[in-house]
Amino acid sequence: MPFSLHGIGVSRGYAIGRTYLLQRNQPEITEYTIPDNIIEDEVRRFLNGLDLARRQLQDIRGRVSVTAPGDIGAFIDTHLLMLQDASFTEAPIHLIRSRRCNAEWALKIQQDLLVRMFDEMDDPYLRTRKDDVDHVVRRVQRILVTDDPAYFNDPDYAEMAASRLEGRVIVADDLTPADTILMQHQGVLAFVTEYGGPLSHTAILARSLGIPAIVGARNIRNYLGHDEPVIVDGRQGIILVGLDERILRYYREKQREERRQQRELNKLKGKPAVTRDGITISLHANIELPEDALAVRDVAADGVGLYRTEFLFMNRASFPDEEEHLASYLHVIKTLEGIPVTIRTADLGADKQLDSGRSGQVCTNPAMGLRAIRMCLKDLGMFRPQLRAILRASAHGSVRMMIPMLASIQEVFQVLKLVQETKQELRERGLAFDEHMPVGGMIEVPAAAVCAEQFAHYMDFLSIGTNDLIQYTLAIDRVDDEVNYLFDPLHPAVLTLIHHTIRAGQKAGIPVSLCGEMAGDSRYTRLLLGLGLTEFSMHPTGLLEIKKVIQGSVVSELNAIVGRLLHTTDAEKYAEILKDIAQN
Fold it and tell me: What is the 3-state secondary structure (H, E, C) of 184-197?
């Protein structure tokens, strides 16, 4: 009898195929005491394990196709960098020597410490990077447990390479970037994992490859057998089991319709996003890594509305210098050949000082702690190199700088003062930059949205970060399974703050964009148009679908409907108007 299982849909599409259950047993790690006379032998055994893990990853990195999305190789590179970080190389050695414990146990202690540190980070993207810690540690521990000098092959990789995965739906606890490289070549239809979230590496890679994917399907391997026919609905986050002919016919038709829609969407590349009543809408893309610029170019986006720079700070003992920043920015600017790029300054969590090897008080509530612009203004040694690099990059293309998590106008004054000081420093060094480079701010704290007119008076543009704005407004953590059902982009308070910010920009004559997840979800496109939004920024994969919705919309009609929505206090009427907007 048919039944359904549920997770989080993170990559759209439908897949019909048989399951391949990827069973991985974490090596059992036990603690034992090392005699004094062989402690240095144990240290060498640990270092040899790190070296072999590094060589395994380098071998896998060499298998990445030149046509593969940049995300794939970038995640492998991240794992390689982690194996060079002091957190992995020095801390376990200290534990081996001080506690006289075996290498596997020392690494486990350090793993637990790093995972706790990532769990305390407020930024959801950085928080999910604890998955990378787990993957790297598991690789090294398997090597140490095997303890064979001739051992080289990655057992997970070898198992998958020997299996016939074409037409399969991979079901696993989690997937590594190395797994994804192999799947790209073997024709895997879809991923389903027990763990992970919308910002996990599995989700990012699935979207890059265009493979339907569901994550966070807890205990799913308890309900699915190996080689079992299933349907994966990556849009709704549903896995259908016990299929009958009626269900199969329905989803085969949905697949055909999806392919037709994609062919139609592809025809929109390079065409303007203009509403039926003649209003031009700007469609920009968000990127995480320099390699993502290729995806921006592929969908012919109007620009990059959000270039996240946090990757430059991850898995290292020191902050990136000016030249490292500049190189990453120039890579994107040159790849995009003239279209504008908005670079966001570091939006790092409250305990970033631990990640960079610095000591300091651990914040008990990172969401309210020292993060983003607060942290940058406190640590100018970290902030100034990035300011210099962004300004220098502006000499090579259309560059805007965006400041995250502004809450006070005093922060704006401090940033603008630093920008002027940095410009003078570059003049004295004889280095070129755009004297008129726009500086804008992110509106993601309710206080900033309420005071949007004040911010608009001093900034060149504003960008609404709905991911944080919603969770701060509703006082919920969107990645907490216990309360994330309360994360509601359609809450009247959220829409009121968005509308107020857009109106503030219009009054000041400056552009206002929206770069949160709402921007890339076609369910909200007409609503945002009705609120007055004329600039969207989203993951590149969603851009063409949003463009199609825009081309079929009449903004003047949506303005009137949304006006009624904002002034209603009746819950049932509110729901009716939302439905009317979606169908308009």
Answer: HHHCCCEEEECCCC
- 296 lies in the same domain as 326: yes
* Tokens found for residue 432: 């070129």
Active centre residues (catalytic): 201, 515
Q: Is residue 29 part of a domain?
A: no
Residues 174, 202 contacting (CB under 8 angstroms): yes
Question: How far is Cα 134 from Cα 127, in angstroms, rounded to an integer?
Answer: 13
Q: Is residue 416 part of a domain?
A: yes
Same domain, 346 and 459: yes
Determine the Cα–Cα distance for residues 538 and 288; give it in Å rounded to an integer.
11
Residues 370 and 379: their CA atoms lie apart, in Å, by 11
Cα dihedral: 296, 301, 306, 308 (round 10): 0
DSSP designation for 514: E
Residue type, 372: A
DSSP readout, 519-567? Answer: GG-GGGHHHHHHTT--EEEE-GGGHHHHHHHHHT--HHHHHHHHHHHHH
Written as six digits, the tokens of 291 are 């390699």
Collect contacts of 110-114 with beta carbons under 8 A, ≥24 apart.
Answer: 111/137, 114/87
Token couple for 229: 């026919």
Domain boundary among 211, 233, 264: 264
pLDDT tens, position by position, 506-546: 999 999 999 988 999 888 999 999 999 999 999 898 899 99
Range scoring the smallest mean pLDDT among 23-37, 44-58, 214-228, 288-302: 23-37
What is the DSSP pairing of strand 8-11 with strand 213-215? antiparallel
Does 18 share its domain with 62?
no
Retrieve residue 10's tokens. 């993170």
pTM of the model: 0.73
Could you tell me the two tokens for 512? 């206002």
Structural domain containing residue 460 = 267-583
pLDDT digits (tens, 9 = 90+) for 140-151: 988 898 765 445
514 DSSP β-pair partners: 464, 536
Cα gap 321→357, rounded to integer Å: 16
- Write down the residue that tokens 């991240």 correspond to: 78
Whole-Å CA distances, 249 to 190, 244, 255: 19, 9, 10
255 with 234: CB under 8 angstroms? no
DSSP-derived secondary structure letter, 345: P
